[in-house]
């Protein structure tokens, strides 16, 4: 009988990715305070030393995980835009409602985001990532509003309002998925956009 090895080998890119995925799971389960090199190593099935081989520490790994999770959300939005075709209003609706469907609307993703948000006030690198991510989101939204004919002078505030609406509906949908459906969230968001346009 042979013993199962405690740790496994993998290619560098795959190992980095597995560490990032493990960090996201630890953040979702334990929050920022419970996320340590040891906890991540156990979750990933590697030695703590291997975490240090790929990342300079837990702070760097959390920052990489934030970028990775934001990338997942962006890819989901890109896919929704691709499915929407060329009609400007259909593209705006797709952009807004993508947050109400999987993989964006999930309790685990919500828990991970909460951990990131908890770090915004204490870590300048996470605060910077947060600001950059939301600025890029709003810039894309402003462009879509412009494509729908909104005058440039109104786009910034409209994008802020729509972003707040999306975040609020997404948060409630993830916290209480039985309270209302993704379809209802989309209808609420589209009604608000009708008023703004």
Number of helices, where a helix is a run of at least 4 consecutive DSSP H or I residues: 9
The main sheet comes to:
none
- Give the H and E element order: HHHHHHHHH
Beta-strand portion reads: under 5%
Detail the topology: elements first, then pairings.
Blueprint: H1 12-30, H2 37-44, H3 48-54, H4 58-84, H5 88-97, H6 107-120, H7 124-147, H8 152-175, H9 182-196
Summarize the structure.
This protein has nine helices and no strands. It is mostly helical and 197 residues long.
Q: How does this structure look, described?
A:
Helix 1 (12-30) packs across helix 6 (107-120). The model has no long low-confidence stretch (mean pLDDT 91). With 197 residues, this protein is mostly helical. It contains nine helices and no strands. The radius of gyration is 19 Å and the shape is elongated. The N and C termini lie far apart (70 Å).
